[in-house]
Amino acid sequence: MDDHTKADIIIIGAGLTGLAIAHYLKKQDLKILILESRDRIGGRILTINNEGVTPIEMGATWLSTEHRALQQLLVEIGLETFEQHLGKTAVYEPFSTAPAQLVQLPHSDNPSYRVKGGTDTIIKTLATELSSQSILLNQTINKISLEANKVLVTSQDTTFESSIVVSTLPPLLMANTINFATPLPDGLMNLAKSTHTWMGDSIKVALSFKTKFWNAKELSGTIFSNVGPITEMYDHSNVADSQYALKGFFNGAYYHLSRQERLELVLKQLEKYYGAQVRDYLTYEELVWKKETSTATSSGQNILPHQNNGATQYQQSYLDGRFYIAGTETSPINGGYMEGAIQSALFISNQLENRKLNS
Ligand SMILES: Cc1cc2nc3c(=O)[nH]c(=O)nc-3n(C[C@H](O)[C@H](O)[C@H](O)COP(=O)(O)OP(=O)(O)OC[C@H]3O[C@@H](n4cnc5c(N)ncnc54)[C@H](O)[C@@H]3O)c2cc1C
Fold first, then answer.
1. Same structural domain, 89 and 123
2. Which ligand 1 atom is at minimum distance from the Cα of 70?
3. Mean pLDDT of 218-235
4. Digit-coded pLDDT (tens) for 2-33
5. Ligand 1 pocket by C-beta < 6 Å: which residues?
6. Which of 291, 311, 339 is the last residue of a domain?
7. Model's pTM, two decimal places?
8. Which residue has its alpha carbon closest to ligand 1 atom 15?
9. Are 282 and 206 part of one and the same domain?
């Protein structure tokens, strides 16, 4: 099969779920094609790597020892983790009318970990296992139909064909942006339209610095603020603790501001805690996920965090058994998180492993 538009399995989306499905199926003799709308792989995993600056995570950052499938995958592909440094205290700002205070942090038996070198090393490592023709970027799938015993998948310029298609889009995005010319059940579409997309509304901000000034006595790189617009922030220094940064979440309601306006608010808030030295930053990075059309879409309704994640309707196939809905939000275990993506990839690859795919 050498036509680049045909495959045994088409996976829509080169995020963690899509790449992990290909990883788990790699022993099968199957032609897998991954179609990705962005001009990069990784989806909600995005690490910014600048010369001389700690890798800055704009998407997924932390995992725990309870994320067992992910931990096992990391071991399998030779990646290591390191503990998130929290310190013994945190800067805490409860009210706008009172100054921030330093509070003791309780000891945690279940610390968070980061991936050495950045979360995107998972993505890069999984991608190197694939042949160069396996991932096509800049292919925004907008139509899916069932014809005879094939599924046709159409992007802005090409129609692809496969026995099996797996969507890894957040279900809400799938329901809002893909035209199912062969319809999916109404109940499934309604479920997808009320399935929460984890972090779809979030804004991440990060500043890198030459020195780790928050290491001084009576200071901390861990921030919790009810006042904001930064709501929480953490030490984001590299594993060697030789390149320094602070990274955190900025109130998602401020998505309409310009980058410059957000930067000024970040600096003003940090200045309250650390003084004017925050203005000597090396780099500023931010990402407004709500504006990422390959992640977020308007739902028109209030959807609660993790709502409908892992619903039973996501654990079955559609279009005569040729279409599967995968992705972290479909996982009953840790849906929304990287662990959910790996759980989903394991579930789907198990389903596909014993099928006769070219019939
Ligand atoms: C700001 C932020 C912080 C996070 N922090 C953490 C954390 O600390 N720990 C943790 O475990 N998880 C975290 N997450 C969640 C984690 O990133 C996700 O669980 C995981 O990356 C989801 O992988 P996925 O492949 O299921 O989905 P995605 O990464 O969303 O992949 C879907 C892919 O489909 C592509 N796509 C979309 N539409 C189309 C289309 N029409 N045609 C073709 N391709 C399309 C997208 O570009 C994307 O590459 C965070 C997420 C964000 C955004």
1. no
2. 11
3. 95
4. 588 999 999 999 999 999 999 999 989 899 99
5. 12-18, 35-38, 43-45, 59-63, 139-141, 168-170, 173, 177, 198-199, 202, 204, 289, 294-295, 327-328, 336-338, 340-341
6. 291
7. 0.97
8. 337
9. yes
